[in-house]
Specification:
single chain; 89 residues; mainly beta; two-stranded antiparallel sheet; 12% helix; globular
Length: 89
């Protein structure tokens, strides 16, 4: 887990969570990103996270939504759903 606005290391990456958007605001971001994005399933919601990711290593690395997950208060982990993200991704 990475605390809000605190830098954390993950391998060569230095990650900082800058903003978290949930509920109707996150659903609006996702819906506005693409007409092909679906509404969240009943009982679920989108979570949009803006973060800074700095590669502090010497090798070029790619990073995308599939590299991240969120956990709820019960510890259940949810992965990226494959929606087209808002710009910037």
């Amino acid at each position: 887990p990475v605390a809000f606005q605190a830098e954390a290391a993950a391998g060569p990456w230095r990650l900082t969570v800058l903003e978290v958007v949930t509920g109707d605001d996150a659903a609006a971001l996702v819906a506005g990103a693409s007409e092909f994005n679906e509404s969240p399933a009943d009982g679920a919601m989108y979570v949009a996270v803006r973060l800074r990711a700095q590669n502090a290593g010497g090798a070029e690395l790619g990073i995308d939504g599939n590299d991240f997950a969120v956990a709820d208060a019960s510890g259940n982990v949810r992965r990226f759903v494959g929606a087209i993200p808002p710009d910037p991704a």
